[in-house]
Design goal:
Cofactor: L-ascorbate; ATP; Fe cation
CATH architecture: Sandwich
Helix content: 10-25%
Shape: globular
Largest sheet: 8 strands, antiparallel
Bound molecules: decanoyl-CoA, adenosine-5'-triphosphate, 2-oxoglutaric acid, fe (ii) ion, magnesium ion
EC number: 1.14.11.18
Radius of gyration: 18 Å
Family: Belongs to the PhyH family.
GO molecular function, one term: phytanoyl-CoA dioxygenase activity
Order of helices and strands: HEHEHEHHEEEEEEEEEEEEHHE
Pathway: Lipid metabolism; fatty acid metabolism
């Protein structure tokens, strides 16, 4: 019985079984070098402020943000919400990506959350790490099984520059409690981690080449290690959901704290008041990329 995947004729039975069992599947060389080079150029243009993108969040590493002023792409840890940048948003509508995404979401597809991650060389404080987490912690929509993340390496990613680390099979569990990890050197805004996860659970380091793409379930526990090189480790990603998903009320759940944190930031960013809900912030960001916008 398949729960996590749909029969669209794209995944082989072996690939479906692997995703059901592990919660992720890696497809080699899915995005071309030419496309990735275009994303990289656009990233550079954004960092040089040659283009201004409505709604884009430019996040700097907490160590740098709190100590010195650095200009350009060396200051940027992550771009978030690039959906209004047509050049970067091309990633979210690449036919070969959507073809796979449909095996998890079905035919009506929304791009809900977009990111370009530029993991900086660690400053020595280990703030370049991303704590182990489940992406569903940030999402007030369900069902979880109709949500998937697509994450593409923009260059070789390996243990040394902080590749993704996943706990295979952890998507079979439930959404766990998250909060800020107690890290001496500080932690980036909103980088919550799973409070208690089994340290003996097998870990897999996903070493990937430029263009390799991993699709993973929003309950899969994952993170990334320190970048111990002097280069910026780049990846581009999009979280997709079926437009047939529905919003949930997170009041009284483990997601209440993050929802308040997001609402507070949204209030600052858009200058709106409390009446904008956590769900609204997602409905505003979401973009239909295939089929019909039925519910989200
Ligand atoms: C909505 C969540 C979506 C998550 C989806 C799925 C899974 C993804 C898992 C994650 O990636 S979780 C992380 C999600 N990240 C975000 O949502 C972006 C959060 N960051 C921001 O919104 C901005 O970077 C931030 C508001 C924190 C700062 O931007 P600003 O343009 O206001 O920066 P500015 O330099 O003016 O600094 C303002 C204050 O923020 C502080 N700051 C800047 N960067 C920071 C940082 N990285 N961490 C902590 N604090 C930071 C900075 O020190 C300063 O503090 P003080 O007011 O005390 O002086
Ligand atoms: N003390 C910690 N508490 C919570 N999470 C941690 C801690 N140390 C590392 N992690 C998380 O574990 C994952 C792997 O990080 P780690 O630095 O161990 O990986 P790595 O550098 O790729 O592997 P290794 O150091 O074993 O070669 C990341 O998500 C990281 O944020
Ligand atoms: O380090 C990375 O690229 C992974 C980041 C991540 O998991 C996330 O932002 O949700
Ligand atoms: Fe994540
Ligand atoms: Mg380690």
């Amino acid at each position: 019985m398949f729960i996590y995947t749909l029969d669209t004729g794209v995944l082989t039975p072996e690939q479906r079984l692997a995703y059901e069992e592990n919660g992720f599947i890696l497809i080699r060389k899915l995005v071309s070098d030419q496309d990735i080079d275009r994303f990289r150029k656009e990233f550079e243009r954004i960092c040089k402020r040659e283009v201004k993108v409505p709604g884009l969040v430019v996040m700097r590493d907490v160590t740098i943000a709190k100590s010195e002023y650095v200009e350009g792409e060396k200051a940027v840890t992550k771009l978030q919400d690039y959906q209004e940048d047509p050049e970067l948003f091309r990633y979210c509508i690449l036919p070969q990506i959507l073809k796979y995404v449909e095996s998890f979401t079905g035919p009506n597809i929304m791009a809900m959350h977009t990111m370009l991650i530029n993991k900086p060389p660690d400053t020595g404080k280990k703030t370049s790490r991303h704590p182990m987490h489940q992406d569903l912690h940030y999402f007030p929509f369900r069902p979880a099984d109709r949500i998937v993340c697509s994450w593409t390496a923009m260059e070789k990613v390996h243990r040394g520059n902080g590749c993704l680390v996943v706990l295979p099979g952890s998507h079979h569990g439930t959404l766990l409690e998250h909060d800020y990890p107690q890290w001496e050197g500080g932690v980036n805004k909103m980088y919550h981690g799973v409070r208690d996860y089994d340290p003996n659970h097998p870990r897999v380091h996903l070493e990937m080449e430029k263009g390799d793409t991993v699709f993973f379930h929003p309950l899969l526990i994952h993170g990334s290690g320190m970048n111990q090189t002097d280069g910026f480790r780049k990846a581009i990603s999009c979280h997709y959901a079926s437009s047939d998903c529905y919003y949930i009320d997170v009041k009284g759940t483990t997601q209440e704290i993050i929802s308040n944190e997001v609402k507070e930031l949204a209030a600052k960013k858009y200058g709106v008041d409390d009446s904008v809900t956590f769900q609204d912030t997602w409905a505003l960001r979401g973009r239909l990329v295939q089929g019909d916008r039925t519910s989200m």
